[in-house]
Amino acid sequence: MEWYLGPLKKYAEFSGRASRKEYWLFALWNLPIAFVLALIALPLYMLYYLGVLLPSLAVTVRRLHDTNRSAWWLLLSIVPLANIALLVFFCLKGTDGDNDYGSDPLALVAAPPGPVVTGPGPTPAIPPSAPPPASEIRQPTSSSDALSAPPPPYKERPTIKMKPESTPEAPNQPDS
How far is CA 75 from CA 61, 79, 83, 86, 152, in A? Predict the structure, then answer.
């Protein structure tokens, strides 16, 4: 039920991204509710449809954003057979990592709760303005170390010089 209520809580939030799971579970919860309401009374169905119209559009736009597509792609729903393309977009895996529309919604879910422990024991707090202790400064160990390797030599790109455009002259023609 959380997957149905989540998009309803983001009622008119068109920015950001929605994962496949969020989109499809909202759509799948929406279908039986609408069907039952249509069987009970048509006015109830119409009220429900008007109530979830904006959240449905919002989650659809966020789903397109997850595939790094603009909301303008929704205009394909007007074209009869182009709905297939929209269906494919909704089924595609979202862009890994950040894209033009925000951070990856699955990256936020995958992060473990609580503090991240990175070492065998607690590390002492070092003020940000203080330099790191000498014991923590890494020294290059070999010539293949990327920090000690010299930068690659700079190569200037060749310049292509073009001839100035010349207009062809008309052949001399006798006056008539």
Answer: 11, 8, 10, 10, 49
Pairwise CA distance, residues 87 & 3, whole Å: 20
- Tell me how many domains the chain contains: 1
Q: Is 113 exposed, middle or buried (0-12, 13-18, 19+ CB in 10 A)?
A: exposed
User: Could you tell me the end-to-end alpha-carbon distance of the chain, in angstroms, rounded to an integer?
Assistant: 92
Phi, psi at 29, each rounded to 5°: -70, -35
Q: Does residue 26 belong to any structural domain of this protein?
A: yes
Give CA–CA dist 62/16, Å, rounded: 6
Dig out the tokens for 80 from the structure: 């009869």
Containing structural domain, residue 26: 2-110
Q: What's the pTM?
A: 0.57
Residue 58 lies in a domain: yes
Report residue 39's pLDDT band, with 50, 70 and 90 as the boundaries.
very high
Residues 120-164 have pLDDT tens digits of 555 555 555 666 666 666 655 555 555 555 555 666 666 666 666
